[in-house]
Amino acid sequence: MSSMFRSLGERNYRIWFAGSLTSNVGTWMQRTAQAWIVLTELTDNDATALGVVMALQFGPQLLLAPYAGVIADRLSKRKVLIWTQAVMAVLALALGAIVTAGIAELWHVYVFALLLGCAASLDAPARQAFVSEVVGLKLLSNAVALNSASFNGARMLGPAVAGVLTVLIGAGPVILVNALTYLATIAALLAMRSSELLPSPPSKRGRGQIREGIRYVAKRPDIVAVLVLVFLLGTFGLNFPIYTATMTTMEFQGGADSFGLLSSILAIGSLGGALLAAKRERARFRVLLTSSAFFALSCLAAALAPTFWIFAVALIPIGFTSLSAITTANALVQGSVEPSMRGRVLSLYMAIFLGGTPIGAPVMGWIVELFGPRAALLVGGASGAIGALLAAWILHRAGAFRWRDRPWRNSDDPRTDEPL
Predict the structure, then answer these.
(1) Cα separation of 296 and 81, whole Å?
(2) pLDDT for 261
(3) Of the candidates 339, 389, 402, 363, which has an alpha carbon nearest to the alpha carbon of residue 131?
(4) Mean pLDDT per 10-residue run, the chain (420 residues)?
(5) Alpha carbon separation from 172 to 34, 93, 119, 160 (Å, rounded)
(6) Per-residue pLDDT at 400
(7) End-to-end Cα separation, the chain, in angstroms
(8) Angle (nearest 5°) at CA 215 between 210 and 218
(9) What's the structural domain count of the chain?
(10) How far apart are alpha carbons 185 and 322 in whole angstroms?
(11) C-alpha to C-alpha distance for 301 and 310, rounded to whole angstroms
């Protein structure tokens, strides 16, 4: 099997990959339909309202993630995922039914976005940490990249399907389809062979576990550097639904099909970035920095695009560089932490990555309202450049940054032999 897909040689991972891909397609279908409902049916192109929806959906990641990390370290990650997927399926079913019945109001979308965010905040650290239990540390970097490829392959397919179906049958049935796709992940989790999993030892019960995770991260300048970059990029740079939706409606006067097409084109680049990361033997810090810098340049090009199709083409390098950066960041963090700390560290990672959206999404929506979507794209691109500079400075101060030589290793953790 090609080195790019070597994790698929593991039976359990093949099952997990198939279930996740199916569910991811449904997730992107719902996100596209939900954004379109907010912009065109419940408001008159109100980008701030869309930003509020994103803030409510990702806000719980910031507030609940530390506790979710403790749960992921203490309980069976497989069982946690089964329960969270079931809850999210019920929420999608309820929202889809309300929209289909024609009784949806904006506050309904707000409430369901918040509830979905609460469920996702418990799901995310368990999902991230579960990958190492499926494939082990040797294949971890490749599996993380393939997970990103799955997510972005779905982002390429899901919005396009959602755009067409929204025009044909409406947004409500699209959300109902997503409710069904959660069953694929649940079925995959139940079909795995328990004897082939590599579960991490559960953390001990007791007080201070959240503080212990924070102290662990604080002593690791390599992880701190990654988190700083990811926070800036996730907060201000990766608000793609706002960029694509508002550019479609405000700059190019497009419809739902155009919005879905832009989301899919963005995912083409993202898929390429994830697959390139999968081909690498290990994650390296210089890849993270260069990807973030080129993300900034790509956003600049998109902001200056004079026509719809030039803008669409400019989205490809935005997707490529953003996913290269995020996939590399995830692999750097996962591959360098102790197994007993993985859930808590990843919960902090997810809190910073997704929890910044409640700050960034309304801000970017406000920028769109005042200055237009092109200005928002410029601000998003600047976050990548500033994040790369700050991350390099943090490592330089710690004496850990080497562009060509082997960079930071955690001297307190003999397991972290992989260069960054």
Answers:
(1) 35
(2) 83
(3) 339
(4) 78 93 91 88 82 82 76 84 96 95 93 93 84 82 82 76 86 94 95 85 62 80 90 89 85 81 83 78 82 95 93 93 88 77 78 75 87 93 94 82 48 38
(5) 9, 10, 21, 16
(6) 62
(7) 26
(8) 130
(9) 1
(10) 26
(11) 9
Angle at 296 between CA 365 and CA 4, to 5 degrees: 110
Q: Which domain holds residue 101?
A: 3-397
What's the CA gap between 198 and 395, in Å, rounded?
Answer: 32
What size, in residues, is the chain? 420
pLDDT of residue 418: 39
Distance CA 156, CA 148 (A): 12
CATH number of the CATH domain containing 203: 1.20.1250.20
pLDDT reported for residue 205: 59
Q: Give the angle 360-361-365 at the CA atoms, nearest 5°.
A: 115
120 lies in some domain: yes
Predicted pLDDT at 213: 75
Lookup: tokens for 201: 């030892």
**380: nearest Cα among 327, 308, 315, 283:** 315
Instruction: Look at residue 224 and tell me if it is in a domain.
Output: yes
DSSP one-letter string for 244-282 = HHHIIIIIS---HHHHHHHHHHHHHHHHHHHHHHHHSSS
Any domain includes 219: yes
Alpha carbon distance 368, 404 (integer Å): 40
Residue 142: C-alpha distances to residues 147, 148, 257, 358 (Å): 9, 10, 34, 30
Closest by CA position to 349, among listed 213, 191, 255:
213
| DSSP per residue, 280-337 | SSS--HHHHHHHHHHHHHHHHHHHT--SHHHHHHHHHHHHHHHHHHHHHHHHHHHTTS
The answer to whether position 411 is within a domain reads no
Answer yes or no: are the C-beta atoms of 291 and 298 closer than 8 Å: no
CA distance 42 to 24: 25
CB 140 within 8 A of CB 335: yes
pTM given for the model: 0.71
User: Locate tokens 């755009």: which residue?
Assistant: 163
* Nearest Cα residue to 131 out of 200, 177, 51, 183: 200
The helix/strand count (H/E) of the chain reads as 15, 0
User: CB of 197 within 8 A of CB of 12?
Assistant: yes
**What pLDDT, on the 0 to 100 scale, is given for residue 419?**
37
